Amino acid sequence: MGLLSNHEAVVWWEYHHGKPTSDIFSKYEKPSYVPEYIYEILAREINEKIKDTRKASRERENIRKIQFSSAAYVSRVLSRAKSKIEDTLRQHANSHRLDTENIDGEKGILTGFDYQANTNVYIIFTLQLGVVIWYEHTNYGGKLCDGTPYSSQARSDGKPCPKVEECRETLDIILKEYNLTLNPKEEDMYMTEQSNRIFGKLGSKQLPRYQREIQEGE
User: Which residues pair with 143 in a beta bridge?
Assistant: First the structure.
């Protein structure tokens, strides 16, 4: 699966959907089905690489279930995933010559600033799309997502932004993979503003191990 191994991808998914490493091990202590979202990505990759339908079918069957040997193993897998993600986020920031302000491999996000473009930049890891690089912006060529002029002085042909479908898909994938939700007001926002809320939620997200510590201290 691109950057992460199958085991790393499953642990990453489960971790960001609220399970501490001990619970992940409990779920996969015996051979268990991988999350459907992960399976669909892996199956698509197999179909693209293997043209022989019978061989592809066998490979898809082989990845249907996984098993983990111990909670300690799950912790090591999660640690490897974090390290890989942080390294690739940093590499992308360097290649784009960004001034890195914050990097969090555990949450899969890097925040930086592009002095040439004079804007904030967010680099996010996703299982489905790989690394996403999002430049903060208020409009596209003077118009908002649906074609509405950005300001009274701006001109617009009335047509929606040509990137609107791509942006919507990207943000929806980030919401799904990191188990984030928007309130009704945020759902009605233009994506130029909504994206900032999403990245803010990801940056401040409470992860399972912190939740467990709070519960034990209560």
Answer: 140, 149
Q: What is the pTM of this model?
A: 0.90
Residues 36, 30: Cα–Cα separation, whole Å = 18
| Tokens encoding 181 | 């939700």
d(CA 70, CA 17) in angstroms, rounded, equals 20
DSSP state at residue 98: -
Pure H helices in the chain? 6-15, 21-27, 36-49, 53-62, 71-95, 164-177, 184-187, 191-203, 208-217
Backbone angles phi, psi at 149, to 5 degrees: -55, 140
- pLDDT for 59-95, tens place per residue? 999 999 999 999 999 999 999 999 999 999 999 999 9
Look-up of token digits 């890195």: 100
Report the chain's terminal Cα–Cα distance, integer Å: 39
For range 104-115, the mean pLDDT: 96
- The domain limits of the chain are 6-76, 79-208
CA distance 22 to 216: 15
